[in-house]
Predict the structure.
Amino acid sequence: MLDKEMYVKVLEREIIDSIADFLDKHNIDTSDFKDKATAIVNNGIFVQGGNIQANAIAVGAKAKAKAETNKKEK
């Protein structure tokens, strides 16, 4: 499944780059397009063969995460 997701992201990036190149060649400003395209491609986290160490992780639209520490009073 991870391989499938990786290949989909590669295809997305190639399609977006092709569209941006076409628009650039026709003197169309692509700065907003490129910003939104980057957000689309980067919308996700892939961990392959490793670990994530974090205090808090939030996933999804408008997700929020809060890390709490266990403090013992002396």
In short: DSSP finds two helices and no strands in the chain. The radius of gyration is 19 Å.
